[in-house]
Every structure is written in C-alpha cells, then in structure tokens.
Amino acid sequence: MTEDMTEETRYTAYTGDTGTLVLAGTPIGDLADAPPRLAAELAGADIVAAEDTRRLRRLGQALGVQPGGRVVSYFEGNETVRTGELIKELVRGARVLLVTDAGMPSVSDPGYRLVAAAVERGVRVTAIPGPSAVLTALALSGLPVDRFCFEGFPPRKAGERAARLREVAAEQRTLVYFESPHRVAATLAAMAEAFGPGRRAAVCRELTKTYEEVRRGPLADLARWAEQGVRGEITVVVEGAPAPGPAEVGPDELARRVAAREEAGERRKEAIAQVAKEAGLPKREVFDAVVAAKSG
C-alpha cells in the first residue's frame, strides 16, 4: 500500500464514464460490525482514501482483505488539496472509496468537501451504510428518539460553547453531541447551566467496545460524575426542552378577544368557546372575564 499518489500514477486512464465515489461506514468500536460490502469495495476500488492509513491497514487485516488499488491519506490537514486530486480521478472514471477512522465520512469527519465537489461535477456518489455512534447512543439513551438533531462537537472555548448551548436551550427535539473525554465534564456543566440542572441526559462511552458504558441521569449529576474523569469515545444525548404551556392571558385580554370576535359577527357563545380553546382555558373562565368587563 502507498499513502500518496505519485506524479506518474495520478492521471491513470480509467475505462468508462465518470467514476463513483463510495462513502463507507466503518465500525465505531467492534471490528466485527463492519458492513459485509466493505471488504468487496476495499478489494475492488481503484483508490482508497483513508483518514488514517494505519487504521485502514488494521481494518483490512480484520476483514482478511488487502486494498486492490492505491491507498491515499485524506484527513483534515490535506482535505482541501486532496479533494481536487480525487475529483480529477473521479472525472476520469475511477471508483474511489472514502473511509474515516470510525462511522460515516462527512459526519464530524472528513468527506463533506469531496462529496460537495463530486456532486457539483456530476459524479455519482453512493454509500455503504454502517455503524453509527449517533443512532446507537440515541437507541441506548432511554430518551425520546422520534425527533432529534445532531449538534456535533461543541466549541472548545467556554464562552463560545455557552453561547452555542443557549441557542438550542429551547429546542424540543432530543440533542446529540460528540465530545472528547477531557472536555466532557466542562461541557456537561455548561449544559446543566444552559438547559437546567434537572434536564435528563445520557453519556455513552466506548460504544460497542469491551468497556461500553451508558450513564443516565440529570445533567447536574452527570457533570459531577464526569469530574472524576471519563475515558474513551464519548457521545452525549440530551433530552429536548419541554413544550411551552399555554400563555398567561389576563381577564381584560380575554374580554377584548371575545369583543373583537363579536364585532366581526360571531355570536358571543361561539366567540367565548373559540377564545377559550386558543388560550387553553376553561370556557367558564373566559365567560367570567367577559361579565367582569361588562360590569366594569
């Protein structure tokens, strides 16, 4: 395996039309979770672009396969330059397999630039689905999963992190974050301040690995637990904000709303019923407000 394209091999003539970019999901822990199609793609791709070529080598050994084409590095430091090189190969007809250290390329990993450039050039892009830390953590969290949003890694700086968390404090969907082990205690404390200490959450670490652990509880409790030190790959799932209750509407406002509907032609009974429904209040309370306004 070689880790870079040479000038002599960079512009190999491929057969066929524009090539295909294949995004491959890789195990997030247990190598036995590798998708069955991954071995075939490793063997058949013209180019394998890997975030870490050493990890790719270990994955290939676990699958019992050697990459059949060239292996090149594709990571944050060379992503911009390498994207242009790979696009040239794709346009010439190459089949390029993109793998990152764990999970799906582009999801908090290199890949977005290459996908965007491939789409712009009309190159076919497909994927080999694989294990997902986001979905695995959601499923294990015990929190609602019918609606959720993925927030990636919080900002490293405390001020920026606090501001970002405040932006989503009222978000009703379940929130999913990635975090490094040496910052997770500070992040959980910031979440407790932004979302409230009682907001439920789950800290999922080392998913699918030998020492997998899911710690559930209020954010304040989890922040105190994390102060003792946490190791491994971390995914944090946080309960969404509760739906707001009916807005407080005073008697004068209730009477005004009923009067406005009456002026528009509604009968008083129907106007009271509709105002009560909109305000989330009993009809009797709206009726009393109208009577009090007439008496006043």
From TrEMBL:
Residues 20-223 form the Tetrapyrrole methylase domain. Keywords: Cytoplasm, Methyltransferase, rRNA processing, S-adenosyl-L-methionine, Transferase. GO terms for molecular function: methyltransferase activity. It is found in: Cytoplasm. It catalyses: cytidine(1402) in 16S rRNA + S-adenosyl-L-methionine = 2'-O-methylcytidine(1402) in 16S rRNA + S-adenosyl-L-homocysteine + H(+). Its EC number is 2.1.1.198. GO terms for biological process: methylation. Its main location: cytoplasm. Belongs to the methyltransferase superfamily. RsmI family. PANTHER family: RIBOSOMAL RNA SMALL SUBUNIT METHYLTRANSFERASE I. Catalyzes the 2'-O-methylation of the ribose of cytidine 1402 (C1402) in 16S rRNA. This is Ribosomal RNA small subunit methyltransferase I. The gene is rsmI.
